[in-house]
Amino acid sequence: SSIGTGYDLAASTFSPDGRIFQVEYAQKAVDNAGTMIAIRGKNGVVVVADKLISSKLYTDNANPRMFNVNDNVGVAVAGNYPDGFALKNYAYGEAMKWLKDYREPMPIQNIANSVAEYIHIHTLGISRPFGAGAFFMSWNKQTGGRLFLVEPSGLNYEYKAWAVGKHRQAAKAEIEKLKIEELDVNQLVKEAARIIMVVRDENKDKNVQIEMGWVGEQTNGKYEEVPSEVVTAAEEWAIAKLDEDDMDD
Amino acid sequence: MFRNQYDGDVTVWSPQGRLHQVEYAVEAMKQGSATVGIKSETHAVIVALKRAQNDLSSHQKKVYEIDTHAGVSIAGLLSDGRILARYLQTECSSWRWDYKQAVPIKKLAESMQLKLQANTQYYGRRPFGVGILIAGYDKDGAHIIQTDPSAEVVSMHGTSIGARSQSARTYLERNVDNFEKSTPEQLIVHALLALRDTLPAEENLNAQNTSIGIVGKDSPFSLLEDAQVAVHLNQVSTHPRTTGGAAAAAAPGGAEPMQM
Questions:
Q1: Partner A, chain B 131-170, Cβ-Cβ below 8 Å
Q2: CB A23 within 8 A of CB B11
């Protein structure tokens, strides 16, 4: 491999076979972080993250990973937390500028594009690439649910469902087993909790906590944090379901 | 001269997706003498251990008021910390100018995080080699915010940073359930006991090397005078010392001139 040959020390350097290693390494920061799953269902989008709580001294909901960009669009950041926070702040600022200029909320496609452009500039070599990615999600009657992921490379794709972080492969395999188009948001919340729990590594993933956000018909198209009692109920459902599956085996 | 190829600059990712320069800056914070912050429902307290270069010099200031409703304490490179304290003072006063009211602590924490993050990403800067604790009181109640050079900024019930701070955090984790309903006086005692656990057995807290800052409901931030500090230290001296904890996590090196 080309690691250590000097072609991987700056984002401004191509390796002889045309790769930009610094961007790949930044992606690693996302790959090694806690799992995050986002799923678009029948009438909304749900995002769920597995967060490491390293001490009981943290206050409840310290370091949230999910935020509003505006009333209708939510963002969930994965990877290096401070980098993700800076991305959220940029997205929020762009949405605010749009609102001032056009007197209407910034559409999700424009938000995702503008953040992707911002991230991309950081892959050209003046500074280091962002070690974080961001899901953007929205729902309304006209377009239905929409879900985007912007990666540290600046790539920006729309998804039906996707997973990033440590256990993304296992999580994606689990998502593919579901008929997500047929599930409403309340079912998605449960299944998402189940998937996060089933892909956990029992020996390594300790002191973890689930954080969830949703947008859909039942929230009237507003992006919101999922209330803690709903999260707790989803976790209880998931535990029961996992026990049941164990019995079958 | 470098430990590996990827630690020469903050703008370089290692193949594992880590930022070594930022991690080293966190080490600078860990060399500074400790500071502890805890909160109850109504009050937030920060205490700090000050070092003096020698017997003739004064102790280096570690606690700053940043507004009537908030103060900070510092561990690490104190000159970096002073810059951050000044930055927060400016944030507080410009918010007051814009909104005619005190800045919410959450907003202060967010702007702090963005400032710290920029220093981990852009060429020509280095991360701040300092961690700070913000103690504040606003309409949402009392707050303790912890920051570090990697731009992790987090709200805590209680915490400690700096040399041998693990011992203090152990004390805090054991007693965290009592903080919520504590009186301001009890809160200060808890904080001082935690701070004392960071000291080696032959050293002790005294009015000269200890700073206490407190803020809360209907009481603006105040940095206690030496005489008041002595009163609180008296209450602490009746508690027996837990030995062993501090020695286990001894920090490398002695008192570096810059890091106090």
A1: 150-159, 169
A2: no
The pLDDT tens digits of the residues spanning B5-46 come to 777 666 789 999 999 889 999 999 999 999 999 999 999 999
Q: Does B18 touch chain A (CB under 8 A)?
A: yes
All residues of chain A having their beta carbon less than 8 Å from the beta carbon of residue B190 are none
Q: Which residues of A have a CB under 8 Å from any CB of B?
A: 3-4, 6, 8-10, 21-22, 25-32, 55-59, 62-63, 80-83, 85-86, 89, 122, 126-131
Q: At B1, is the pLDDT very low, low, confident or very high (cuts 50, 70, 90)? A: low
**Contact assignment for A58 to B14 by CB distance below 8 Å:** no
Subunit contact B12:A56, Cβ cutoff 8 A: no
Cβ contact (<8 Å) for A21 and B123? no
Q: Domain B33-248 carries which CATH code? A: 3.60.20.10
- Please check whether residue B260 touches A, CB under 8 A: no
CA A128 vs CA A77, B1, B93: distances in Å:
18, 23, 33
Residue A126 included in any domain? yes
CATH of the domain at A117: 3.60.20.10
Residue A189 lies in a domain: yes
The answer to whether the Cβ–Cβ distance between A85 and B113 falls below 8 Å is: yes
State the average pLDDT over residues B225-243. 89
Instruction: Specify burial of residue B111 (Cβ count, 10 A radius: 0-12, 13-18, 19+).
Output: middle
A146 to each of A108, A195, A215, how far by Cα in Å?
Answer: 8, 21, 10
Residue B58 C-alpha, separation from nearest chain A C-alpha, in angstroms: 33
Least Cα distance to A137 among A127, A145, A129 occurs for A145
Reported as a single tens digit per residue, the pLDDT across B215-233 is 999 999 999 989 999 999 9
The domain in which residue A34 lies consists of: 21-248
In the predicted model, what is the mean pLDDT of chain B?
90
Is A6 within a domain? no
Residue A206: per-residue pLDDT: 84
For chain A, which residues score pLDDT lower than 50? none
**Rounded-to-integer distance, Cα A134 and Cα A166, Å:** 15
| pLDDT higher than 80, residue B213 | yes
Count of domains forming chain A: 1
Instruction: Indicate whether A4 belongs to any domain.
Output: no
ipTM, two decimals: 0.86
